[in-house]
Description:
Ribbon-helix-helix fold, 2 strands, RHH_dom, RHH_sf, Ribbon-helix-helix domain-containing protein
Amino acid sequence: MCHVFAGQDPERYASQTRRLRLNGQSTSIRLENSFWAILDQIAASEGVTTPHFISTLHSEVIELRGEPKNFTSLLRCACLKFLEISSNQHAASIAAE
Length: 97
């Protein structure tokens, strides 16, 4: 079982830093490439750029909960939530067939 996880391409878990603006302020976010790929997918599904999606998410979190203590972790969890929702939608479409 662990070979599935251990054998993955190291490029998937290599980190990448991207610079973007959050609420008008320039910042850098460092995430693993797999998370960037998911964020790019989320943004594309929303019809926006990844920086725009991240900035909007940041604004909405501030509005709902205040400044997040660890925004990078929130982004990772957003990716997991997206995968969870996608998986549930896929399972529901299979069940409907």
